[in-house]
Design brief:
CATH class: Alpha Beta
CATH architecture: 2-Layer Sandwich
Helix content: 25-40%
Structural class: alpha+beta
Shape: globular
Strand order of the largest sheet: 1-7-6-5-4-3-2
Largest sheet: 7 strands, antiparallel
CATH superfamily: START domain
Number of domains: 1
Order of helices and strands: EHHEEEEEEH
Low-confidence stretches: none
Oligomer: single chain
Radius of gyration: 15 Å
CATH topology: Alpha-D-Glucose-1,6-Bisphosphate, Chain A, domain 4
Strand content: over 45%
Length: 143
């Protein structure tokens, strides 16, 4: 299984960083110009971007990528999977949060990916690693 991992320290408490990264709209800032919209709310009215929620990503009216939140442990971990994508066999995203000090949080983002065409996986993961690294640097400056 091909995978990537990005680690980034944020100068903010774990609760604030988790709150930021648990909202689908945050990824509009992190991964601009890619647009992210929630298309299905979670069952929890207090956390519409939580467990079971679905987001679509893309550009303008074309948003072919769908991800569903499959695990949400507040201030600890978020997991999501790609759904309804005929080109990808397996995609799992895991975002882990670790408090290093009262105002310092380590975020570890791991993505496992297996495309239907094997050589494509490494290309996609390289692009994702670059996008996440740049996006997290942008977000870290905003907190």
């Amino acid at each position: 299984m091909n995978s990537i991992q990005v680690k980034k320290e944020f100068n903010a408490p774990v609760e604030q960083v988790f709150d930021l990264l648990s909202k689908h709209a945050t990824y509009n800032i992190a991964f601009a110009p890619i647009q992210v919209v929630r298309v299905k709310d979670s069952a929890d009215p207090e956390r519409p971007d939580g467990l079971g929620s679905i987001r679509r990503m893309g550009f303008g009216p074309v948003k072919p990528i769908q991800e569903q939140i499959t695990l949400l442990e507040p201030n600890q971990r978020i997991e999501y999977k790609l759904i309804k994508n005929p080109l990808i066999k397996h995609h799992l995203g895991v975002i882990e949060f670790q408090s290093l000090a009262p105002n310092k949080t380590l975020v570890t983002y791991t993505i496992e990916l297996q495309a239907r065409a094997p050589f494509i996986s490494k290309i996609i993961l390289a692009q994702l690693k670059l996008a996440i690294t740049l996006g997290f640097s942008k977000l870290a400056k905003s907190v």
